[in-house]
Amino acid sequence: MTMADVPLTRTVELGFRRKRLTALAVPAVILAYLTYAFFAFDIPGLAGRARLDNAAILLSDFWSHKTHVTRDNRSGGLTVAIEGEAKGTYASGTTPDWVTVAGDVTTIDLGKGHVVTYDPAGARYVVPGYGTIDIRPEGGKLKLDAPQPLPDWINQADTRISVTTDAARFAYSRSKVETFRYFPGWELFFFTLDSPFHDKSWGELAQLALVGDRIDPARSNIGYMLSEFWTNKMWRHGDVAWAIFETMLMAFLGTMSAAIIALPLGFLAASNFTPFRAVRFAFRRVFDFIRGVDGLIWTIVLSRAFGPGPMTGALAILITDTGSFGKTFSEALENIDDKQVEGVRSTGANSLQSARFGVIPQVTPVLLSQVLYFLESNTRSATVIGAIVGGGIGLLLTQAISTQKDWEEVCYYVVLIVLMVMLMDTLSGWLRRKLIKG
Amino acid sequence: MADISFWPEPEKRPAIDTRAHYLDMTRKKRMYGGILLVVFVALMASGFRLAEMRNAGDFLAGLPMVYQFPAEVLSEAWAMRGNLPGLFLEFVPSLLETINIAGVATLIGALGAAFLALLSTRGLAPWPWALPLYRRTMDAFRAVPEIVVALVLIYIFGGGPVPAVIAIALHTCGALGKLFSEVAENADLKPVEGLASVGGTWPQRMWLGIIPQVAPNWLSYALLRFEINVRASAILGFVGSGGIGYDLKIAMQWGAGKYDQVVAIFLLLFLTIVAIDQLSGHYRDRLVKGAKP
Fold it and tell me: Bigger pLDDT: B101 or A65?
């Protein structure tokens, strides 16, 4: 080893030591930050606050629905309603075939041997493999007769007894007795109970649509069916379709107008087109300001002025994106090849013509791909903006979530939103390939 | 010169009028362009008319009001400007929470994205047959808007930062995963082969062979995402709960009388976003172009 090599080995060794330290330090810093966040966000307390029963309701609501069979214990009136909603109530005398009404006695056949009977004395629930649960009111309290010891799926209090089995949920209180039977699928998704097409199988429907006699002489069955579906009171398919369309409209109008406005402004902010430093500087700061005052704030200010609706959302997207587009457009314009512009200018073109024929063809692919990318991401933002300004699918979604029980509708909207975003994604990708490479 | 001599005499050449053809082509191109433009303008115009019709207020009536609300807010805040420094201090903790939500979500999302990206890049994936599976997973994460996840999780977890973190992290994971995988696709495979030849396991090959190559670009994307996530976290706070967005909503709902708070929050948010924008822009430049000597 010569003398010259000694400092070299030292440098290399030091370098390695530093590398090794960073390799350890980076994960350590990340871990420390996550630990800090763990306590700052009170994750240990989260376990206590989390409502797992809510999660169970939510999940079961996503794929199933329940029918309530309710007897008012004071008046004796019986209602059978899907999800307990007025819109899903069976007209009196038209109960589903698993509910039998004979005078004062109502028999509910829950399948697999589970039978619930409401009678004037009280109510009984026969659970196969366990026995009969008999409940009757006595002196303002509820008296429970069931095989002892009581299993934990029977919950007894003075004024309320509830039973949960895998066939149904049953609850008896002084004012009413209720049985909830669960069915897979989304209830009344196609036709509501008052529609003539309710309760028909696919085959029957197809037959009616193609060859059957007209139910309503004024219009064809298929048209009637479509209008019944479109105006379904429970799911409001027509309104939902409009909301989706509004959301896409917001994204389209906002993105495209922002691009149209930002293009000339981009020229004014690009150093190779605007020789005046002050103008450039001013436009740059305007773009920075627009981007800095976040989309959230623009949305709030605009919704104060224009009220809820899709135009407000479109304008909010327009303003926010003008800032982003202005910045990226001016950067793209600064990076162009000057030779083309010089060539066009040498033929005697004025500055507008040289911009049109020398610059625009060069930047079009970059700008278009930027615009299409924003169009896709704005479809997602339009959902959020809709939730703030009150328009489009975002509004329906927040409304459905705030009722805290229409989770099947939430699921429906989420599926539609995801499909919408994927559609826009595919569309913008296809357009990008067509317009830029094709 | 040589090819020209093979041509027949000028008067015997087939009569191709290049100029006419060119003009014809240009005219056709211009016509298509014109049609497209007309369709586009018609779409925009009818779209705006439709949007205006379905809006609660109309455009011209609302235009003067755009200045009215900010003016009202600003004048009230100006009258109470003495409160602002105190309010700034008061809202710093919730601002920190907003930033922390974005930070933690970016970190978790980026870590998840790194794994998903390596698993879904051709040439690097340990199980190439599962490639489409991971890609579709990322697509799904990307397609679900943050607000949906956040609002549903608020029902389960109650308010607070956790739903927002999970929502943003999921989206970040999908969005960054795609970008990360595009970067990793262009990585040089020679180090990986070298490591494989000396018996390196898959994690070793990735950690020592790929990560050092892609780290600058990945970090740059992650910084950009952090910037986006700070905004998203403020918005989620406004719609759901947690952080400075929630304070803003409360102050806005109160209306006149608390506009000094609104202005304080606006200013804090504005300054933070600009600062993070500048910082991340600076570091991204350095990461991609290399440190200045």
Answer: B101
Answer whether residue B115 is part of any domain: yes
Task: Please provide the DSSP assignment of A54-73 as one string.
Answer: HHHHHHHHHHEEEEEEEEET
Domain residue limits at B109: 72-289
Return the SS3 of B132.
helix
Q: Is residue B232 part of a domain?
A: yes
- Residues B124, B195, single domain; the answer is yes
| In a shared domain, residues B193 and B133 | yes
Residues 6+ apart with CB under 8 A from B74: B263
Q: Do A422 and B139 touch (CB under 8 A)?
A: yes
What are B148-190's pLDDT values in tens digits?
888 888 888 877 888 899 999 999 999 999 899 988 988 888 9
Omega prior to A149 cis, within 30 of 0: yes
Total domains in the fold of chain B: 2
Give yes or no for residue B106 having a pLDDT over 60.
yes
Digit-coded pLDDT (tens) for B15-39? 667 888 889 988 998 898 899 889 9
Lowest mean pLDDT segment, chosen from A98-107, A389-398, B44-53, B87-96: A98-107
> Does the domain at residues A237-437 carry the CATH identifier 1.10.3720.10?
yes
What residue ranges do the domains of chain A occupy? 65-184, 237-437
Residues B95, B40, single domain; the answer is no
Assigned token pair, B3: 């090819």
Asked whether residue B61 is assigned to any structural domain, the reply reads: no
CB contact A81 to B (< 8 Å): no
**Mean predicted confidence (pLDDT) in B126-133:** 88
- Claim to verify: residue B234 and residue B190 sit in the same structural domain: yes
Give how far B7 is from chain A: nearest CA, Å.
31
Q: Are residues B160 and B251 in the same domain?
A: yes
What band does B11 get if pLDDT is binned at 50, 70 and 90?
A: low
Q: Are B227 and B280 in contact (CB under 8 A)?
A: yes
Residues B6 and B80 in one domain: no
- CA–CA separation, A409 and B68 (whole Å): 38
CA distances in angstroms from B16 to B23, B29, B36, listed in the order given: 13, 20, 30
Cross-chain residue pair B269–A246, CB shorter than 8 Å: no
A13-52 per-position pLDDT tens digit: 888 888 888 878 888 998 999 888 888 888 887 777 777 7
Confidence of residue B107 (pLDDT cuts 50, 70, 90): very high
Q: Which of A30, A41, A385, A396 is the mutation pick for testing B, counting most B CBs within 10 A?
A: A41
Instruction: Write out residues in chain A with pLDDT < 50, as ranges.
Output: none
Q: In what order do the strands lie in the sheet with A141-145?
A: A99-102, A105-111, A114-119, A122-127, A131-138, A141-145
| ipTM topping 0.90 | no
| 323-352 in chain A: CB under 8 A from chain B | none
Q: Are residues B23 and B84 in the same domain?
A: no
Using CB atoms, pick whichever of A307, A384, A398 lies closest to residue B57: A307
Question: Count of residues for chain B?
Answer: 293
Residues of chain B positioned with their CB less than 8 A from the CB of A250 = 51
Report the alpha-carbon angle A156-A159-A164, nearest 5. 40
- Give the residue ranges of DSSP H helices in B120-189: 131-143, 146-157, 161-185
CATH number of the domain encompassing residue B249: 1.10.3720.10
Instruction: Answer whether residue B253 is part of any domain.
Output: yes
